[in-house]
Amino acid sequence: MDFIETPIVGTTKVAIIAFAMAAFIVFIVTPSVGSIARFMGAMDEPNARKIHEDPIPRLGGLAIFFGFIIPALLFLQLTDQMKGVLVGASIITLFGAVDDFRPTGPLVKFTGQFIAAGCLVYYGMRIDYFSLPYIGTVNLAVALAIPLTLIWVVALINIVNFIDGMDGLAAGVCTIAAGTFAVIAISLGRPGAGILAAVLAGTTLGFLRHNFYPASIFMGDSGSMLLGFILAAVTVHGVLKSVAAVTLVIPLLILGVPIFDLSFAIMRRVKNHRSIFRPDRGHLHHRLFNIGFSQRKAVLILYAWCTLMSSLALSMRFAPGFVTVILACVAIAVSLYLVYLLEILKIRTRRSARLR
After folding, report:
1. Is 102 helix (H, G, I), strand (E, B) or coil?
2. Is residue 299 part of a domain?
3. What local confidence, expressed as pLDDT, does residue 203 receive?
4. Which pLDDT does position 351 carry in this prediction?
5. pLDDT at residue 212, rounded to an integer
């Protein structure tokens, strides 16, 4: 999945052009997709769990798909691995669009997710190896590489899907993550993955114009699952499979906030003896909203948190060691404070309820 022009300067120029084209396409196409969603009745109706008060059209993922597919075909070679990305993206968007139009169960969603992930594996995109600080390169046997790749891809799809619960949240977080991945992948000599990440960042930024509060359209599962799938493809091809010593740490930092949100949601539901597939209002964005932050402020706080984690990842790749140490201390302090703040307010709420 490599572009013909491999020098970093040339690749960066192409990535910028692909980014701008993707953003423009999604920005132009999204209103039409919203009209189609209204005509087809693919509307997200408000309920007790959701924050919005009026029906909002879904299917925004179709606009994101068009903004992704056109620049990808124009700026990337149609290698076997690229075929896997395109076929998998088409499949996951189709499954998501069906769910946006008529909600399906978790089994159907997981089926589509594993089929899409299987496309990457079938066309040769696997986590064959990764590197760790002070350990070096860890090679994986095929029997381990295939299931690990499938699990990683499906996990990232659901990570993005879980965080898509507030106007502009998933789109903004993916813009930050994809832009960071683009810079790192290009610096690691992975131009194809870098351009692919730039295209993804463009699609989400273009969509954000219509999706930020107050949103006129939602991306739906067709968008959130597509974004998670492409992010997974970028990490597998462009970041994890590199000899750089921090290649496993970098994706975990960049996606640290969504990963924490998913992990926390699963543990919370297991603790409360509820199905992990049953939605609730306990996500980070819900907690911020419940303690008094507006949708806009809650989303901006999470943007800032993700930006801080991405800055730490970039510093590990480019900055001197002392800068990384300083950023790491700041990131840890901010993360602990936000977690503590949300938890302590929850405790206070319970105490207030007991007193009343």
Report:
1. coil
2. no
3. 97
4. 45
5. 93
Q: Under a CB-based contact definition with an 8 Å cutoff, are residues 160 and 174 in contact?
A: yes
Looking at the DSSP bridge assignments, the partners of residue 129 are 139
Helix (H, G, I), strand (E, B) or coil at 57: strand
**What are the DSSP E strand ranges found in the chain?**
43-44, 56-57, 129-132, 136-139
How far, CA to CA in Å, does 285 sit from each of 107, 123, 148, 291, 353?
Answer: 26, 37, 29, 10, 22
278 belongs to a structural domain? no
Beta-carbon contacts of residue 342 (< 8 Å; ≥ 6 apart)? 284, 287, 288, 291
- In the chain, what is the straight-line distance between the N-terminal and C-terminal CA atoms, in Å? 62
Which domain covers residue 17, as residue numbers?
A: 8-254
Identify whether 283 is part of a domain: no
* Identity of the residue numbered 146: I
The pLDDT of residue 3 is: 40
At 312, list the tokens: 């730490």
275: its two tokens:
């199905």
Q: Tell me, what amino acid is at 85?
A: V
Which residues, given as ranges, of the chain have pLDDT below 50? 1-6, 243, 245, 344-345, 347-356
Predicted pLDDT at 174? 96
Which of 197, 177, 176 is closest to 186 using CA atoms? 197
Instruction: Report pLDDT digits (tens) over 54-90.
Output: 788 989 999 999 999 999 999 998 888 899 999 999 9
∠ Cα 315 318 321 (to 5°): 60
Query: Which residues, in sequence order, are CB contacts of 158 under 8 Å at separation 6+?
Result: 113, 228, 262
Task: Report which residue type is found at 270.
Answer: V
**pLDDT value at residue 52:** 63
- DSSP codes, 69-99: HHHHHHHS---HHHHHHHHHHHHHHHHHHHH
As a whole number of angstroms, the distance between CA 236 and CA 197 comes to 12
d(CA 110, CA 100): 15
| H helical segments located in 278-320 | 284-290, 295-318
Residue pair 127/81 in contact by the 8 Å Cβ criterion = no
SS3 257: helix
What gap in Å lies between CA 291 and CA 281, rounded to an integer?
12
Q: How confident is the model at residue 131, as a pLDDT?
A: 67
Is residue 285 situated within a structural domain?
A: no
Count of the separate structural domains present in the chain? 1
